Amino acid sequence: MSIEKVRDYFTQYHMETRIQTFTTSSATVELAAAALGCAPARIAKSLSFMVGDKPVLIVAAGDAHVDNHKFKEQFHTKAKMLKADEVGPLIGHAVGGVCPFALATAVEVWFDISLQRFASVFPACGSANSAIELTLPELEKYAPFQGWIDVCKNWQTE
Questions:
Q1: How would DSSP label each residue in 22-59?
Q2: Would you say residue 50 has pLDDT above 70?
Q3: Which of 96, 121, 128, 143 has its CA 20 to 30 A from that of 34?
Q4: What letters, b where the CB count within 10 A reaches 16 and e where it falls short, cover 108-130?
Q5: Three-class SS of residue 80?
Q6: How many Å apart are CA 55 and CA 117, to the nearest integer?
Q7: What is the mean pLDDT of residues 59-80?
Q8: Do the Cβ atoms of 100 and 145 come closer than 8 Å?
C-alpha cells in the first residue's frame, strides 16, 4: 500500500506521526481542503507528466493550473499528463494519493512558485485519504526536488 511506503519513508526523519488520515476522501483539492479545514490553495497537488522518456512531478498550489506556454519554455516540450493507469507504475502512487515522497526511482520533482505564498502546505501521503502539513523548508528537505519553477497560472492575486 502506498501510504505505508510514505509512512516508512517519513520514519527515517521521525515524521511519520504527522501524517493525517481521514475517514473521507482527500483525493481532489476540494476534498482535501474540506477534510483539512483549510483553503484549497494550500493543498500541494502533485501533477504527473511525461517529459521525453522521464516521468516528472510538478507540485503546485491547489488553485494553480499548468500554463502550457510556460511548461513548454521550461521543459522544451508540450505538457503531456500521464494517463491514470500510468501514474501508479511510473510515479509510485495512484491518482488521488500522488505525492513527492517515496517515489519510483526515475521521477523528477519540481516545485511551482505558486506554493511560495504559504508558510505551510498539505501534500498527500500516498493514499486518497491522507496528507501531511509541511513548511516550505520541510517540503524542500523531505522531497527529492530539482528546484523551483514557474509553470502555473491563475493563482496570482491582482
A1: -SS---SHHHHHHHHTS-GGGEEEEEEEEETTEEEEEE
A2: yes
A3: 143
A4: bbbbbbbbebbebbbbbbbbbbb
A5: coil
A6: 26
A7: 96
A8: yes
Closest CA to 18 of 144, 141, 103, 131: 131
Q: Which runs of consecutive H residues, i.e. helices, occur in the chain?
A: 2-11, 29-36, 68-75, 84-91, 136-142
Domain borders along the chain are 2-149
Sequence-distant (≥ 6) Cβ neighbours of residue 8 within 8 angstroms: 16, 102
DSSP single-letter state for residue 83:
P
pLDDT tens digits along 122-136: 999 999 999 999 999
- 3 state DSSP class of 74: helix
CB atoms within 10 A of CB 155: 17
Q: Decide: helix, strand or coil at residue 115.
A: helix
Confidence at residue 131, expressed as pLDDT on a 0 to 100 scale: 98
CATH class (in words) of the domain with range 2-149: alpha beta
Counting Cα atoms < 13 Å in the Cβ hemisphere of 27 gives 9
